[in-house]
């Protein structure tokens, strides 16, 4: 599949607002160039503008996608909508996956395009913003940020990275590798798995030991203050990740990322 990185500037000719132009350009690019990272279907359908949450969907596998766009690099966080609404969506099976398109308006190209599967969204990656001031049109309204740096690398699947196109088969394989997380219906249980996945990635080694993970005990205790048996919980999550073929147990407290 050939993907063009060019934004079709003709799509925005009749718009005056900069934000409207960006929306039309980026939505047009996704509609014409993107594919479904779940099943590989080469065309995504676009919802009407009054759809409540999602922007695109795949007719083949019924996955929904919300699109956010950003210029000037990806950064560590993405501005999103209402904080309470976002938290309410996390446990909803209809919560969409998240497309993030990073663009450069000179020369009107896509720099990065990634998808965050919906099973990677937990309260720990949602940051509450300060309420709007009393002089604002929506005084008291509270928005949120999505903290990209708190999402495991396995949950940031790049279709395009630094203008380099990732082969579709690689994208779909990474997507399939973490689908087991959807079976963790309780947000708290899924949060534990994701936090241990983050710890594994922070070790920055293909092979690691139980002792390596234990070094994150204080971090995990802070993330889960109600749990008084952190090491037991760590071992439980490692066993789950082993059973799901995310990691391999090689013996004597040693593991390998598959």
- Number of self-contained structural domains: 2
Helix-strand makeup class:
alpha+beta
**What portion of residues belong to β-strands?**
15-25%
- Helix content class: 25-40%
Report the CATH topology name of the largest domain: PvuII Endonuclease, Chain A
Q: Would you give an account of this structure?
A:
The protein is an alpha+beta fold and 258 residues long. The chain folds into 2 domains: 9-183, Dam replacing family, catalytic PD-(D/E)XK domain (PvuII Endonuclease, Chain A); 187-257, Arc Repressor Mutant, subunit A. Helices cover 29% and strands 24% of the residues. The chain is built from 7 helices and 13 strands. The longest helix is centred in the last third of the chain and has 17 residues, at 187-203. The two termini are 27 Å apart.
Keywords:
258 residues, 2 domains, 7-stranded mixed beta sheet, 24% strand, globular, PvuII Endonuclease, Chain A, alpha+beta, 7 helices, 3-stranded antiparallel beta sheet, 29% helix, Arc Repressor Mutant, subunit A, single chain
Quick overview:
By secondary structure, the protein is of the alpha+beta class.
